[in-house]
Amino acid sequence: MIRNPILPGFNPDPSFCRVGGDYYIATSTFEWYPGVQIHHSTDLANWTLVSRPLTRAAQLDMRGNPDSCGVWAPCLSYADGRFWLVYTDVKRLEGDWKDAHNYITTCETIDGDWSDPWYVNSSGFDPSLFHDDDGRKWFVNMQWNHRAKGTGVNPAHDSFDGILSQEWSPDRGLFGPVTNIYAGTDRGLTEAPHLFKHDGWYYLTTAEGGTGYEHAVTLARSRHINGPYEDHPDKHVITTKGASGHPVQRTGHGQYVEAPDGTAWHTYLMGRPVMHNGKPFCATGRETGIARCVWRDGWLYLEDGGLLPPETVQHTAASPARQAVVHDRLDSLPPEFQWLRTPYPDRLFRIETGALVLTGRESIGSWFEQSLVARRQEDQAYDAATTLDFAPTTYQQGAGLVTYYNRHKFHGAFITHEGGQRCLTLISCNGDWPAGALDHPIVPVPISDGPVTLLVEVRDAQQQFFYDTGKGPQPLGPLRDASHISDEGAQGEHASFTGAFVGMMAYDTSGQGAEARFTRFSYGPRDLS
Question: Element (H or E) spanning 117, and its range?
């Protein structure tokens, strides 16, 4: 049995690719570095992270990118004996404009050294590359319209101004006419185009309805690559709009793959909502699910009928049980960890024997250089802990354990310096910056020199920090609202669509670069049933 999500935690916008008996899924990483996550499987149930291909400044430099910008919606494909990866680096999110630059990189092996990219265009985001049977390559992306209402091709949402198609080659770049091949349905917000071919038809998968609870996988087809495209009889293949009781929600943005035995599969973006104060929030962010499909009368449908994706799929392989991950020594950076924005991690951290040493840089709200090294929250309930030693000399220096969504939504337990002594404090921001920048501050807790273990217990919408100086865990401050660390945790310009992380951080706004030595990190799911 396959249990959804197959990629738990922040793993949105899944691009699906098969090479022989190997399956690959590439997902968005937004402002987290290195860029793009690629997972591999041979049975569709068990997935392993095998690559983050955008690893150097020539490929990706996100310093200064606002929250929820950076790498959107990659497209992974295989042709001509190599892998091709299309990605966007978004430089602006708020307002009527988007600055979204599209690139292509390639590599003969999935875990090799990917090429410096070709710049392609900036007309919109969610680009993909289709390799036709005749060897020609077609670049498609949604077109962004910054102009006034009533100027777009789809009145359901003017800014999403149709899907553009143009031929591309490594030697010539884009060439030939640009064609707007698809305006979308009345659901609107048409994005995430992926082309594939089946029985002589060109099929265009798109995502519609936004990334929230009206999201959908939409399908259209044509005999010609540049259209005209006709909509699926049901318009959508997957959507959970209007089915608030279904355990899988926010479904859309995926891609089709056919298995060697002819079985049809479709990935999709999904969320697992938890109710808090009468409203849902997705503690584990936007994740990746999979569904088995069937062909009927030239159209793709979910195997079990309807539009609601399955929570489980009967299969020859089984999804693995969730396990705790304990790093008793940090002799290398564990593969599940990332950092923010910069292609120069040596400015943020280094590995010493048995320890990750973080150099304090800018504040937790910086868009340039944060020393935050963190992993995804993959479970609605979990425990995490880290052991560190840090000797601050001013209140401008701190190091500790953080639960983090973005610069406006975080909670952190820090060792710092107040009143002439080393102490512990909590810093929170609940999304209502600046009023919530120091939400429920606590009286600093004095501690003696030496290593300290910081712990956090997260249980759906609540979290509690603890500290241990060798006498057993003691609570640090009151309960915190964990629902803030989610897409739904704030409204307006500070709402976004990445995911929750938990990790280690050091800051030093004095500019002295104080160092904190982290020797242990653990993360373990907890069953609340």
Answer: none
